[in-house]
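Lab meeting prep.
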Amino acid sequence: MTNPPHHWSSGMINGLCEDVEALACVALCPCVVFARNAKNITDGDASFFRTCMTYALLGGCWGTLACYVCGPLGYWFTCIPCYAARYRKQLRLKRGLPDVPLGDKEAHFLCHPCALSQEFREIKSWHSDIVIGPSKPTIDMPPQEAMAYLKGIQEMKR
């Protein structure tokens, strides 16, 4: 069963300046961003440490340096675009996202940092509306106040 088609939460290029955090993370530590993305895309099946190390060993570290010298095409000297495209495809299939204007491999071959950043923003947008429980401890509250507080949180989720 496939999900209904959706649209990316932001564009590959035009969304770069919308999220400075994503841009900085991809520029400074792409292996960590990639590992975080992979873990979220696979719902935890991909180990953060394993994907981070695989990314680094396939040339992620020196690919980043080559990217600073050669521009976005610096990753052509590594195996990273092929490795990253697999996870982008999983992301697209999982969320029903289109492969336009570029396919998975093309996106990572032509501008790996932009594609990685777009995936980071997309995953971040999924989790923006999640409330993970009480934001303050309820143990010291009287029972009626705690129940009212928890009901308020449940209402926010709807």
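Slide two material, second protein:
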Amino acid sequence: MNKDLLLHIVRFILLVLIQVLILNHINFLGFLNPYIYIIFILLVPINVNKSLFLVISFLLGLFIDIFSDSGGVHAAACTVIAFIRPVVLRSVFGLSYEFQTVKLGNLGFGERFLYVTLMVLIHHIVLFSLEIFNFSHILLILKKTLFTSLFTIVVTLLILVLLRRDDS
């Protein structure tokens, strides 16, 4: 087994365990949890097999759903961002994405921030829309999306900075 594959397997397992054992129990201000498990989806190489990536992303969300008893909302949100990731990558990185030279650790803060923000917002909009699933509660969906996204983006960017230092 090559080193990169082992790294992705360990990252998958660690992120699921950290999410379900620690972060799901935070409830900062009564409703805020950072959903850092999506870091796995953010960091998967861009040249990965698309079908396999969708299945693995679905499984990531499914494991979170199983441990959180959340009925499939995380699996749906992970599958959506895995599916839409090429569009986000192309929009944010342009030619770097086309030539498959994008490495998140080598990017400037602005590009990394935009990529993480778009992916987190899409994930959270899908997640909370499915979780609440009532259009009359649109303000609650938007409130949870906004504040949880801000919390997740900050924590995710901090983790990415720490991971980047380890790679150097």
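Talking points for slide two:
Residues 138-167 form the longest helix (30 residues).
The chain has one domain: 3-167.
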